Amino acid sequence: MTEPQIYKGLAGVTADTTAISKVNPESNSLLYRGYPVQELAAAVNFEDVAWLLWHGELPTEAEAREFHSAERSARTLADNVRAAIDLLPLSCHPMDVSRTAVSVIGANHPKAEDSSPEAELEKAVELFAAFPAVVAYDQRRRRGLEPVEPRDDLDYSANFLWMTFGEEAAPEVVEAFNISMILYAEHSFNASTFTARVITSTLADLHSAVTGAIGALKGPLHGGANEAVMHTFEEIGIREEESAEEATARAKAWMDEALAQKKKIMGFGHRVYKNGDSRVPTMKAALDGMIEHYGRPEILGLYEGLETAMQEAKGIKPNLDYPGGPVYHLMGFDTEMFTPLFIAARITGWTAHVMEQRAANSLIRPLAAYNGPEERHLS
Ligand code: ACO
């Protein structure tokens, strides 16, 4: 019998088609429904990108008005979602809070088991609208602060920052947040999206798919890397009084030592892009803006020190999480909240994939090559 070919980690395997996004590693480009992601980040708001991912086209003015109003009216968390969050210890990771909250939001939904396209879209919009309140509520309870109610005169990003920090963010900060959400929204068959599609392929409901995807996103080889990047910065030491040059020198020394110890450095490398992640330049520009806004050159120093040392030693380039972590740090989010922010963005991509999988479903069930003991018997 011929040995089956094993594709460890499914590397290089094309599992299905998708019309939602196209990752092109050769040209380092990423298209959402045909549009380059950096063009979207420069021109539209995240709500419109969500609509684009779900519907395939950007909304008309009338559609945008109706959608914005639906989104703004679904921003409040149900009492039992808040109660469920309150039951969780502060010692648990915010990703566990997010996973639990999405599960409760799903259990509450009157159309939880309705998988018609209309019901799926309705659930996707409502989850997209409500999830920021989960992050904001959890961030505030961890700081011993009362929750802040959503404001329907603010767009998604401005309201997200309002609910988290209890004050209106500066327009540049809102813009950088909006850009980060767009860049994190969708990325083809990454581990968490594939998880959502596997769950959907069993005909399970949308919230189960998103809950499972959150589990896949938590790991540091995937979404957890934005948090891990900040832990690296913290380990090197963030010294606000330091010049960029001094920070760069310390970061380079740290990286050389870490690579000598054969450590994996979070925020670098990518399974698909081998010559640089297409989203990094746009996120780096947002980071530069935040560094200037908050007057924190030492963050740039750390960033450049690690990047340069990694490039010189191994030629490995940063991925989206590398500039993403420091952007959220400067905005004032606790480090453990960074991956829940990734969820807020990726809910759009995940739910678009749930709908696409549902529309042309086939159970996802690969084979395994058995390498355990030969058949044996109890006596
Ligand atoms: N630090 C140090 N070395 C690295 C890194 C890194 N971040 N990434 C890759 N390498 C090295 C590996 O050690 C390996 O070297 P070797 O051949 O000498 O053993 C080689 O590059 C290939 O690495 P693999 O891990 O086999 O590449 P793979 O395609 O499987 O992994 C991955 C991609 C998981 C993203 C990897 O680069 C990694 O672990 N990076 C750190 C985690 C991270 O930042 N994840 C975020 C991904 S992007 C996102 O989710 C938005």
Overview of this structure, please?
The protein is mostly helical and 379 residues long. It folds into two domains: 21-221 and 341-359, Citrate Synthase, domain 1; 225-331, Cytochrome p450-Terp, domain 2. Helices cover 59% and strands 3% of the residues. It is built from 16 helices and three strands. The protein has a three-stranded antiparallel β-sheet. α8 (171-184) runs antiparallel to α15 and α8 (171-184) crosses α16 (338-359). Residues 220-223, 225, 264-271, 314, 316, 319-321 line the site of acetyl coenzyme *A. The site of acetyl coenzyme *A (ACO) has 18 residues, from loops. It comes from Arthrobacter vasquezii. Belongs to the citrate synthase family. It catalyses: oxaloacetate + acetyl-CoA + H2O = citrate + CoA + H(+).
Low-confidence stretches: none
CATH topology of the largest domain: Citrate Synthase, domain 1
Any idea of the CATH class of the largest domain? Mainly Alpha
* N- to C-terminal distance: 29 Å
**Strand content range:** under 5%
Radius of gyration: 21 Å
Mean pLDDT comes to 97
At CATH level 2, the architecture of the largest domain is Orthogonal Bundle
**Major sheet attributes:** 3 strands, antiparallel
N-to-C SSE series?
Answer: EEEHHHHHHHHHHHHHHHH
Distinct ligands: acetyl coenzyme *A
> What is the helix fraction of residues, given as a range?
55-70%
Q: How many H/I helices?
A: 16
Oligomer: single chain
